[in-house]
Amino acid sequence: MEIFIEPIGKLINEFSKLPGVGKKTAQRYAYKIIDMPEAEARAFAEAIIGVKRKVKYCNICGNFTEKETCEICATRDESVVCVVKEPKDVAAIEKLHEFKGVYHVLHGVIDPMDGVGPNDIRIRELLARLASGKVKEVIVATNPDVSGDATAMYLARLIKPLGIVVSRLAHGIPIGSEIEYTDDVTLTRAFVERNQL
To answer: Where is pLDDT greater, at 193 or 197?
Structure first.
């Protein structure tokens, strides 16, 4: 015998497909939907359908947009390109209100263990952008892990011969932390990537 009637079971199953949502959390979400007024549930469903219908990738950088070209590509300085793994990384950097250039979203990183090679991510599109001659610097802002570092090194080897400056986000000891509790890799990287005062 099923624990849940079919409509509830289907909803729980759909919620459990989301990343980080286990069966218990999916059940809580399903119960919340059941308890919502119909207008709220309809608005929730329409938001999901709306995002699937309206959101697409910018034809230049690969970030989320509702138009062919995103607002950032249409209005910002093209001479500095920040390369990121996913559109959510663009949102994280934009929250800082510091970066004034444009982005290039790879939609992944080189990861042979997962079968992702250079041809599986948007590297060709990046090189095509660089061929315009407008770009003076490429900032590689991939995660500081094995795949992110491998991607950064691969990009640097391709881009440096073009006479474009390639930089990487600095890594090191987080502000407010204590050196004695910092892991060896982070502490080593902090020494290697130290800056002059």
So the answer is: 193
* CA dihedral (72, 73, 75, 78) positive or negative: positive
Give CA–CA dist 127/65, Å, rounded.
22
Structure tokens at 6: 């079919």
The domain segmentation of the chain, as residue ranges, is: 6-54, 75-168
pLDDT of 60 > 80? The answer is yes
Instruction: Report yes or no: 66 and 56 within 8 Å, Cβ to Cβ.
Output: yes
DSSP 30-62: HHHHHHS-HHHHHHHHHHHHHHHHH-EE-TTT-
* Whole-structure pTM value: 0.83
179 close to 187: Cβ distance less than 8 angstroms? yes
Secondary structure element (H or E) that encloses residue 83, with its range: strand 80-84
Say if residues 85 and 147 touch (Cβ distance below 8 Å). no
Assigned CATH for 6-54: 1.10.8.420
Fold designation for 75-168: Dna Topoisomerase Vi A Subunit; Chain: A, domain 2 (3.40.1360)
